[in-house]
């Protein structure tokens, strides 16, 4: 007869710790994967401006972030379909697929941390702080083999990141062969998806996470609870700032487009006045 050990008396699933050696293997493999992708895309992509190093790095970094968020989003959907029972108790549920997924993302954040560190500017300081918090949070989860479900909830924000990064990439790498109408339609779909996923994941999931932290506070160590609460609260504040900037940029872009259109119309009127006979 098998005897199951439960980490906490209220756990729904038995405690099945995974050896930390697996997390190290997955993290290293993920780090190498993004290192190779970075080198391959750099060798094939032509820089927009060879003299503008910061902008070229930002484009490359955004492309790698888009690749990570796209892969992570697909894997999260697969993980939910494979094990919907994790919603019964995300704190105690664990399997190798979800564990490897968290380690995969941790490997990416480690790579991105060093990439930002090598190309650091004043604007990357906030990203470095964010990555330190995320790396600490995910590493603690992997080493203890606990709280994997809520780690996946946190990583579900990457679903919105797909649209956030796609907005920039469309502006930088817009296909020349595509018509103006197809570009406009694609941009519209990305903007709609961006707002919908932002509200669902960056607001909804973060709110749910804070709520569950309060409800299940007795199941967490005081230090872990404090660190997690501060981290999620910081992310919530950053999401509000990000959403404000998103709307602000959207409005300013529309105003700028209308202004350019008005200037264009005035120029056409002036040209017609010169060309056409009176």
UniProtKB/TrEMBL annotation:
Alphabetical list of InterPro entries matching this protein: TLC-dom (IPR006634), TLCD (IPR050846)
Record keyword Transmembrane present: yes
The keyword Membrane appears for this protein: yes
UniProt entry keywords in alphabetical sequence: Membrane, Transmembrane, Transmembrane helix
One cellular component (GO) term of this entry: plasma membrane
Membrane topology: Multi-pass membrane protein
UniProt-annotated location(s): Membrane
Residues of the TLC domain: 54-255
Record field: transmembrane: 20-41, 62-81, 93-111, 123-142, 148-167, 188-210, 222-247
Classification via Pfam families: TRAM_LAG1_CLN8 (PF03798)
GO biological processes: membrane assembly; phospholipid homeostasis; plasma membrane organization; regulation of membrane lipid distribution
Protein name: TLC domain-containing protein
Originating species: Rotaria socialis
Source taxonomy: Eukaryota, Metazoa, Spiralia, Gnathifera, Rotifera
């Amino acid at each position: 007869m098998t005897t199951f050990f439960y980490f906490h008396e209220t756990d729904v699933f038995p405690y099945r710790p995974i050896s930390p050696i697996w997390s190290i293997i997955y993290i290293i493999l993920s780090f190498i994967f993004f290192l190779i992708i970075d080198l391959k895309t750099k060798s094939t992509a032509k820089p927009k401006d060879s003299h503008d190093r910061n902008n070229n790095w930002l484009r490359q970094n955004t492309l790698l972030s888009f690749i990570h968020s796209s892969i992570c989003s697909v894997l999260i959907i697969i993980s939910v379909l494979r094990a919907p029972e994790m919603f019964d108790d995300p704190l105690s549920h664990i399997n190798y697929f979800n564990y490897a997924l968290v380690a995969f993302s941790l490997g990416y954040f480690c790579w991105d941390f060093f990439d930002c560190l090598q190309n650091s500017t004043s604007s990357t300081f906030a990203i470095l702080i964010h990555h330190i918090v995320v790396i600490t949070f995910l590493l603690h989860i992997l080493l203890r083999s606990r709280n994997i479900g809520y780690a996946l909830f946190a990583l579900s924000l990457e679903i919105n990141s797909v649209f956030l990064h796609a907005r920039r990439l469309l502006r930088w790498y817009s296909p020349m062969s595509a018509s103006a109408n197809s570009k406009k339609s694609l941009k519209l779909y990305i903007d709609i998806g961006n707002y919908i996923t932002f509200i669902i994941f960056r607001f909804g999931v973060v709110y749910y996470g804070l709520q569950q932290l309060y409800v299940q506070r007795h199941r967490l160590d005081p230090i872990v609870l404090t660190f997690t609460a501060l981290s999620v609260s910081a992310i919530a504040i950053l999401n509000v700032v990000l959403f404000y900037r998103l709307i602000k940029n959207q409005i300013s872009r529309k105003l700028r487009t209308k202004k350019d259109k008005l200037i264009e119309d005035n120029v056409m009127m002036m040209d017609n006045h010169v060309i056409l006979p009176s």
